[in-house]
């Protein structure tokens, strides 16, 4: 059965990161959209002081509405879980189910920075100030190296390191504002990457557990769409 997938990338990435997943999905007859969030990837030049989580939720909603998509499998990786959850709150009628791939999940009304250890927040803020010395602004914190995302293959490391961009600070400072509970009642699957575990997501797992979402484990690194694309495709197409 052909399905429609909208794949939303995580922090510092762009739509480019789904290449190894999007191609086999399309070859199998599925429709696949891989939007790049404002301020990242090929849209990094659009970064402004107003670019935050609300902007990125609007990005995802706009793809669903402008492409006139319905019955969508909406997928969010890492930070991309937050724009996906925001879109599910606003246009649930366009979505059949949610898949969150090793995602950052926060309580409504809180921000990404609220779930990260204070020392890590301070480091990212300081890194943004240092980046300001090079870019002329402190609107983003620099991307970590590919190996921090669990990427180990030399060619993949080089590809990811070439393509990642700074992450808009406001996207982590801005709270996730919802009118409905997380997931808005939609069937939701959370895929937890375990080899190695991405420590920045530790505080998200209790929230996932409280929500009662289906949880699956995949023995690969955090950037599973790069490190284990075949297994990722299998998870996305699993009913």
UniProtKB/TrEMBL annotation:
Coiled-coil positions are: none
One matching Pfam family is Abhydrolase_6
Annotated InterPro entries = AB_hydrolase_1, AB_hydrolase_fold, MES/HNL
| Ranges where the AB hydrolase-1 domain occurs | 5-234
Q: Which UniProt keywords apply?
A: Hydrolase
**GO MF annotation, one:** hydrolase activity
Instruction: Establish whether keyword Lyase is in the entry.
Output: no
In terms of PANTHER family, this protein maps to: METHYLESTERASE 17 (PTHR10992:SF1032), METHYLESTERASE FAMILY MEMBER (PTHR10992)
**Protein name as annotated:** Alpha/beta fold hydrolase
């Amino acid at each position: 059965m052909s399905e429609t997938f909208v794949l939303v990338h995580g922090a510092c990435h762009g739509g480019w990161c789904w290449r190894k997943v999007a191609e086999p999905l399309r070859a199998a007859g599925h429709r696949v959209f891989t939007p790049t969030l404002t301020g990242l990837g090929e849209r990094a030049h659009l970064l402004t002081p107003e670019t935050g989580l609300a902007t990125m939720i609007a990005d995802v909603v706009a793809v669903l509405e402008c492409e006139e998509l319905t019955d969508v499998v909406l997928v969010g990786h890492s930070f991309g879980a937050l724009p996906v959850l925001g879109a599910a709150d606003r246009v649930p009628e366009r979505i059949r189910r949610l898949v969150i791939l090793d995602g950052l999940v926060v309580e409504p009304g809180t921000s990404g920075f609220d779930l990260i250890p204070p020392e890590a927040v301070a480091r990212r803020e300081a890194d943004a100030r240092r980046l300001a010395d090079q870019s002329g602004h402190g609107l983003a914190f620099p991307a970590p190296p590919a190996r921090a995302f669990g990427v180990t293959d030399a060619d993949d490391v080089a590809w990811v390191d070439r393509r990642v961009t700074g992450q808009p600070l406001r996207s982590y400072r801005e709270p996730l504002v919802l009118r409905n509970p997380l997931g808005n009642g939609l069937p939701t699957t959370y895929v937890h990457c375990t080899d190695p575990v991405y420590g920045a997501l530790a505080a998200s797992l209790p929230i996932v557990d409280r929500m009662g979402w289906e949880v699956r484990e995949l023995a690969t690194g955090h950037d599973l769409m790069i490190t284990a694309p075949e297994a990722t495709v299998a998870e996305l197409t699993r009913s």
